[in-house]
UniProtKB/TrEMBL annotation, chain B:
It is found in: Cell membrane; Endomembrane system. The complex is composed of six subunits: RnfA, RnfB, RnfC, RnfD, RnfE and RnfG. It comes from the Bacteria. GO terms for biological process: electron transport chain. Belongs to the NqrDE/RnfAE family. It comes from Candidatus Mediterraneibacter caccavium. GO terms for cellular component: endomembrane system; plasma membrane. The keyword Transport applies. InterPro entries: Ion_transpt_RnfA/RsxA, NqrDE/RnfAE, NqrDE/RnfAE_oxidrdctase. This is Ion-translocating oxidoreductase complex subunit A. It holds the Pfam family Rnf-Nqr.
Length: 238, 196
């Protein structure tokens, strides 16, 4: 497998941002009320991710190390603004239902995480494919969660009725609490698989959600979360 | 006055920032292991969001949305300017506190750098602009949103302290049970929707 397809496989399966790394939880919970919203959000994020990975990779030797975070944020914010206007112009319906979460792509830890951990260290082409892989992985994740929530909460998939008329939709699943429950089951499933792999003696990929500690988190350079865990350790030690 | 109160109650409880808008999930899950640290984080968020909504409000009113500068067409810079201002502001607040108010710095210090990427801060700044709030209303909205965050993270930490030694099914230990708890809290917060 050459490097480019390897990056796509990596993003889609091995380091899937939603299911494995647990990154970008805010949009994952907020916009997955239906499958189509999930796809819309996923593809918008993918577009931003590809463009920002490309530009950051091109500029990686020019940006001084000490100001790289603000520089990355400016690059990402510019592309988010472009995507924001494109969506508003061409798909106003989707734009309305995603609302505030489009500009909030700026603070999505997947994008800054990939910029920091991959694009700023690798040549342009692999970085672009890394963006494609990660973005598609995120899209697939959001779409799956969206399908589950839409199916249980409204009896539909992509707006088409699939459940029989006698099915009473559990509306709670497209409301806020449903997001937490679906994600909880998802993480539990992931834990189960991890335990299973650990029993067989295989090393499972580490989760990077903030609940799991910072050692493996791709975004730790940005979030500074290690400060808190370090102080906690000191408190425990004292 | 009544309008301000309605906005405050609405953003603190009815549209709770964590439980119904899903902003700031990371600190909510990560820093809610005990009540003391949760309260510290919540306090820091209240502090930063209140200042940030004031500063972004000023910038929007006098620069970005000002009809005398480029005919008020600079609005497309909102996202870029706000995120940079918030990042710089957090750094600045940290330095200021360290120098002039050491007790407050010791209480909030470690949480401040975490807040830059807390999407609640940017979320509030953008909501204020989208809803067309003036500066006072924006600050009240920001403060109330942050109080909503404080309330929910402290409640969550209290629940987690109580349930820490419960016998949870193996796969649900750690993050999943916290998410289930958050879901139940979100249902409870639906009770507030009759308020306004």
């Amino acid at each position: 497998m050459n490097k480019c397809t390897e990056r796509i496989f990596n993003g889609l399966v091995k380091e899937n941002p939603t299911f494995v790394l647990m990154l970008g939880m805010c949009p994952t919970l907020a916009v997955t009320t239906s499958a189509i919203n999930g796809i819309g959000m996923g593809l918008s994020t993918t577009a931003v991710l590809i463009m920002s990975n490309m530009l950051i990779s091109i500029l990686r030797k020019i940006i001084p190390d000490s100001v790289r975070m603000p520089a990355f944020i400016v690059v990402v914010a510019s592309f988010v603004t472009i995507v924001d206007f494109l969506l508003e112009g061409f798909v106003p319906g989707l734009y309305d239902s995603l609302g505030l979460y489009i500009p909030l792509i700026v603070v999505n830890c997947i994008i800054l995480g990939r910029a920091e951990s991959y694009a700023s260290k690798n040549p342009v082409l692999p970085s672009v494919f890394d963006g494609i892989g990660m973005g598609l992985g995120f899209t697939v994740g959001l779409t799956c969660i969206g399908i589950v929530r839409e199916l249980i909460g409204a009896g539909q998939i992509f707006g088409k009725q699939v459940m029989p008329d006698s099915y009473e939709p559990l509306t709670i699943f497209i409301l806020a609490p449903g997001a937490f429950f679906v994600l909880a089951c998802l993480v539990a499933l992931q834990n189960k698989i991890k335990h299973h792999l650990a029993k067989k003696g295989n090393e499972a990929p580490q989760a990077a959600g903030c609940g799991e500690g910072c050692a493996s988190c791709a975004g730790r350079g940005i979030c500074g979360g290690h400060l808190v865990s370090d102080t906690k350790k000191e408190e425990e030690g004292a | 006055m009544q309008e301000l109160l309605l906005i405050a109650v609405g953003s603190a409880f009815v549209n709770n920032v964590v439980l119904s808008q899903f902003l700031g999930i990371c600190p909510f899950l990560g820093v809610s292991k005990n009540v003391k640290t949760a309260a510290g984080m919540g306090g820091a968020v209240v502090f930063v969001i209140t200042i940030a909504s004031f500063v972004t409000g000023l910038i929007y009113k006098f620069i970005l949305g000002n009809p005398n500068i480029m005919g008020g067409e600079l609005e497309y810079l909102n996202t870029i300017v706000f995120i940079l201002v918030i990042a710089a502001l957090v750094q600045f607040v940290e330095m200021f506190l360290k120098k002039s108010m050491p007790p407050l710095y010791n209480a909030l210090g470690v949480y401040l750098p975490l807040i830059t990427t807390n999407c609640a801060v940017l979320g509030v700044a953008l909501t204020n602009v989208q809803e067309g709030y003036d500066i006072l209303t924006g600050v009240v909205n920001g403060f109330a949103t942050a109080v909503g965050f404080l309330v929910s993270i402290v409640l969550m930490a209290g629940i987690r302290e109580k349930t820490e030694h419960n016998d949870v099914p193996e796969s649900f230990r750690g993050t999943p049970i916290v998410l289930v708890t958050a879901g139940l809290m979100a249902i409870a917060f639906f009770g507030f929707s009759g308020l306004i």
